Amino acid sequence: MDTPLWQKHWFDRRAPFADECRQARDSLLTDLKQPALAQQRVLADVVDMSAGSVHWRERGYDVVADDHRRFRSVLPVMRYDDFVPEIQHETRTKGGTLTCSPVLRWLKTSGTTGAPKLVPYTLHWLLTYRIPAMKAMWGTYLEYHPELLAHPYATLDTQTVREDVFDFVHGIGHQAISNRHPRVNSRDWNPPWYESPWFGPEVPSSHEGRMYHRIRNLVGKELHYISSINPSTLISLRDLLAEHRDQLVDDVRSGTLEGRPYARPDVAGARRLEEALSRPEFTLTDVWPSLTLYTCWLSASAGLYASKLDAIFPGVDRLPFMSCGTEGVTTIPVDDSLHSQPLAVSQAFFEFVPASVPLGELLETGEPVPTLLFDEVEPGQDYHLIMTQGNGLYRLWTGDVYHVDRVVDGTPWIHFVHRDGVFHSFTGEKLTESQVASAVQRGLATEGLGLGLYMCGPRWSEPPYYDVVAEVPEPSPRLDRALSRAVDSALHEINIEYASKRDSGRLGAPEVATVPRDAIAAYVESHRQAGNTTQYKYRPFQRDVDFVTALTGR
Amino acid sequence: MIETKRPPQNTRREIAALPVDGTELALHLWRPRGQVKGAVFYFHGLQSHAGWLWEVGPQFADNDVAFYVLDRRGSGISGGDRQDLPDVDTVVRDYLTAVAHVRREIGDAVPLSLFGHCLGGSFMAALMHHPEFTTRYDAAIFCSAWLGRLHATLDEEQRRALAAETSLELWDAGLKSEDFTDEVRHRHFIDHDDLAVRALTHRSRGVLLGLEELYVRPRKPLPPVPAAYVSGARDPIIDLDDARVAFRRMTGANGALLQYPTDKHYLFYTDVRSRLVDWASTFTLIQGVDRDV
């Protein structure tokens, strides 16, 4: 039988892809040993690409071309919204306004005002930064798990998708960074599985439909590796296997995909699958005993999925996804460290501000903000991240707070802690997501339990207080009461303003409600919206308490 | 010449400010990051501007050809009154300045083609025949070009009346996106492009007539450079027969006709875009071959 075209592509691309990834990783490793040189190179490149732009000329920023050391004193720290007028101009010119590279796409991500952002995706950024970052990360994965390229069915990649684009801004596609369709040119992202039948634009674009096609194509195959950005996608994969068990078994037995002819009927395979899925606690290794690796975000709130992932991937290795957003890449994994990665010094020009500095307020009032460079940060401290990317968005305050774990060969190894501004304050206590996470973790520890998924939101009452819902193995009113006391006590220690407000009666005691394992995961999954499902995130800190009623009926 | 075995290259996209008579004009450029082996100066039509060429510019640049587009006074992001052409001298001077600027920038050794689309072809023909236009160019491409239309359709009395026109009332060109392309994405763009010029003052039509005069009754011969008239098999906006007659009259033995299999007006928004850019790149680069070396 002839080899299908998608498999020909797979075999053609396997060796070059592995080679490209290895080279990209080697380049990154070299840069990590000479971070100052790498940062100088990035800054020089950014200045070279932007000094001649309309915006830099109009503002006089082009003086930096003669002396790169003036970069931080001449250009202001920016928020995305500060760029909006220039971005609107750039939508008309498609390059030349913020930076001297053609804009190929507008990347879509959620904005603070509800209107999706437009992040410029330029040819220079694609070729020099974004694609090399992807390849370097996959270089690490391949270094540790070369079997992911063992054969055409070895890898299920859910971190990128290929979807037709129907949203355009003045003629140019507006799409998620994870959507790598259509391919810009032969240097664009092109893994061996790019033409695989479960990867292309012909697959349904809904999360559930796409996931079913992935499962159907790979069930019964020797799958080694599942790649994801968010852990919730992996949980969802397991949930959908359970939900669509009967249909899947029927499809395998009949050799169909959603009822249409697809492959040879496989009665024995269907029986094995039915057996594997019949146990309520089935794991993904029951379905694919060949699994050796999964990857996804493992830090911050994503880390709360750890016990669930352990449960569905028993004995399977894991590696982390890079720290990144639509706006750019911050860290890239270079080894099997799970919770810390090196600052990606070849990806952007990075600046830091101690997390204790109210950066948002300073920017609001237009006050100058002194920043630290990569070699001025200290292990053990948290920092706001400011980055200048090669797409024209310079000195962008990302809103992300990172913790510096250590410094290796001059390069900081960091991990994402939380989004700045993700806090609630009834009376000035400014309770942050990480503070609540610590308090819930301490509370559960007093009961001998580990931290899993939880949600927290503000309850407006007399006095106001915080509602917390947490997953535990065996929920009970007794546990609710004990955890409420323990979380309150922990927050007293963690946040002195909270303690002050509690002691003066301006804040009520938190109420913790326990729910069974997977209740929150299911609730979160039910809110996965159509479109951009690949980057869908679980957010523990909520703006309201709607989740309480949904989860507890209270 | 074009390297036939290399991956796609990084390219640059720049917008230079070109001050002419106190107005800042936008000169757009897509160029290779490496050596510029050829250059194209593009004259856009009535409605369009450089912002329409986001797919074309990078492809020229990837072919090692620097692609320049002047947003005409009052068009695109250039300064100047919109929907109004000032006068023949100003229009010609803007182009004289811009093309001379480009020649200085690329140097004498790089072949330069002029490329006029639709009404831009008429501006280009006027410039080529203007006595003060002395900048060397190496090839000329008229694409779906509007050539000699007013002379072909108006009698002498009507032309005299039009030349004396001073009205600032707007004349709607009646352009419809479905005549330009049948691609939904591009039609949506054309229909919603807030920089597009879709109407002109009546007196501006008199200026168009004056520009036509420059090449319908030429005062100087054209240099013996190769020229081509490129179009679809049919064009819903241009009378191709009339336009080709005007083209042949201008270019004589140096002219060639090229036809692509489309019946839409804006070839760059059809399936033939890529082939047209590659052909125009080759047509430009080949002029740089030096047989005397």
TrEMBL record, chain A:
Q: Name one GO molecular function term.
A: acid-amino acid ligase activity
Q: Name one GO cellular component term.
A: cytoplasm
Domain GH3 middle: residue ranges: 344-419
Boundaries of each GH3 C-terminal domain copy? 435-539
Please state what the protein is called: GH3 auxin-responsive promoter
Origin organism of this chain? Answer: Streptacidiphilus pinicola
Q: What is the organism lineage in this UniProt record?
A: Bacteria, Bacillati, Actinomycetota, Actinomycetes, Kitasatosporales
Automatic annotation (TrEMBL), chain B:
Asked whether the keyword Hydrolase is assigned, the reply is yes
> Which PANTHER family does the record cross-reference, listed alphabetically?
PHOSPHOLIPASE-RELATED
Molecular functions (GO terms): hydrolase activity
Signal peptide location in the record?
none
| Annotated keywords | Hydrolase
Alphabetized InterPro entries for the sequence: AB_hydrolase_fold (IPR029058), Hydrolase_4 (IPR022742), MAG_DAG_Lipase (IPR051044)
Per its record, how is this protein called by name?
Hydrolase
Q: Supply the Gene3D superfamilies for this chain.
A: alpha/beta hydrolase
Serine aminopeptidase S33 domain boundaries: 35-268
Q: Does the keyword Hydrolase apply?
A: yes
Q: What organism does the UniProt record list as the source?
A: Streptacidiphilus pinicola
Give the superkingdom in one word: Bacteria
